[in-house]
Amino acid sequence: MVEVRWEYYPLVAEHERARKWLQIQANLQLAPTTIDAYGRSLNDFIHFCIERGIQPEEVTREQVALYVQDLATRPNPKGAKILSIESGRGLSNSTMQLRITVLRLFCDALVEEQLRQDNPVGRGHYVAGKGFGGTRDRGLIPHYQKLPWLPSDEEWQTLLKTLKTDLLRNQVMLLLAYEGALRREELVTLAIGDFDFAYRQMRVRAEHAKNGAERVVGYGKITEKLLEAYLQQRRTLSTKRGPLFLSESRRNRGHPLSLVMWSKAVQAIANRSQIPQFTTHTPRHLRLTHLARAHLELHQIALYAGHRSLQTTMRYIHLSGVELTIAVSRSLAGFEQWMDLMLGDQRS
Q1: Helix, strand, or coil here: 44?
Q2: Domains plus CATH for the chain?
Q3: Which residue from 21, 86, 111, 113 lies 20 to 30 Å from 154 (Cα-Cα)?
């Protein structure tokens, strides 16, 4: 059963209906990261309501619009790294989408319980007969899909040099995250039993994969040596099998490493490398891009990443204009020769 960390969402915990709704989501066995995202988003909305004297259950469309404006204009506590490019203020588009989606789900529950008649959060809806195949009206917030940031080859080398001076555990984790294209939760929850050391493979369990699909990924010889050294070091913390990565702090020594602590460790490495944009998800983006540069087929990359949709994989792959030009030229080389043969005499 997923345990809700109510101390992280104190306003939700104090609000009867909000607490009930979030507990239902946990009882439905949603992923811990999803529960955390729902809790933080709902806590943010309740805080907005308290500041303006609004009852969350009675929010109107006009007040929802004010909430959107607040999200788009508030100073972001995490700094310029995730500020809106257009305005220099406000939360990122993806964060705003999450906040509004959670509010819509909460209001849907209120409608279902007959505590209100309608849902004040707008959403796109299908309209038949407009254009080819019908159209879909825009949602409450326009949705932008931006290319993920990736480090240059020089920046990646700089970060790896910084990594050499860090904890052995962190070296192993970052390399496994890169070579296995692992998400944060997939990495942190790896257990010793998930590894096939003979074939240098690791199993991503279905319960920790984002789409619930189990997969097997590999790692290289350098990572293998570091992993062997870490396993010996790990025995000084715990002789139990279970989770592979353990905390080495005085307070939680020997306990499983948390998602938050891994995020802090990566941020510290990024700051020392003077590459603050680097996050726990960057190695995954980078690995999939490198696989594309190695000319793997798109469906192979999708299988390795654990994507059900090839469109998702395409968003992850970040190729430069030069690489795309080379690929196009290689693919159309035969056609260009034919054109030269057909049109060559006209030019002479």
Answers
A1: helix
A2: 6-136 (1.10.150.130), 153-317 (1.10.443.10)
A3: 86
| DSSP tally for the chain: helices H, then strands E | 15, 5
Which span out of 70-74, 184-188, 284-288 was modeled with the highest average pLDDT?
184-188
Which residue do the tokens 């994969």 mark? 209
Per the listing, tokens 């700089």 go with 158
Identify which has the larger pLDDT, 139 or 45: 45
**How many whole angstroms separate alpha carbon 263 and alpha carbon 285?**
16
Residue with tokens 């984002």: 210
264: alpha, beta or left? (left if phi > 0; alpha if psi -120 to 50): alpha
pLDDT higher than threshold 90 for residue 58: yes
Q: What are phi and psi of 201, to 5 degrees?
A: -130, 155
The angle, 0 to 180 degrees and rounded to 10, between the axes of the packed helices 282-293 and 168-179 is 50
pLDDT (0 to 100) of residue 61: 92
Query: Tokens in use for 47?
Result: 């805080």
SS3 244: coil
> What's the predicted TM-score (pTM) here?
0.68
Q: How many CA atoms within 13 Å lie on the side-chain side of 226?
A: 18
Between CA 278 and CA 286, with CA 280 as vertex, the angle to 5 degrees is 65
Which secondary-structure segment (H or E) carries 141? none
Q: Tokens 């040099």 correspond to what residue? A: 161
Conformational region of residue 74, where left means phi above 0, alpha means psi within -120 to 50, and beta covers everything else: beta
Q: CB under 8 Å to 217, separation ≥6 — which residues?
A: 179, 180, 181, 182, 201, 202, 204, 304
Euclidean distance between the first and final Cα of the chain, in Å?
77
Measured in whole angstroms, how far is the alpha carbon of residue 217 from the centre of its chain? 19
Name the pLDDT band for 33 (thresholds 50, 70, 90).
Answer: confident
Query: Distance (Å, rounded) from C-alpha 62 to C-alpha 69?
Result: 11
Angle in degrees, CA 245, 249, 251, rounded to 5: 115
The tokens 């696989």 sit on which residue?
Answer: 291
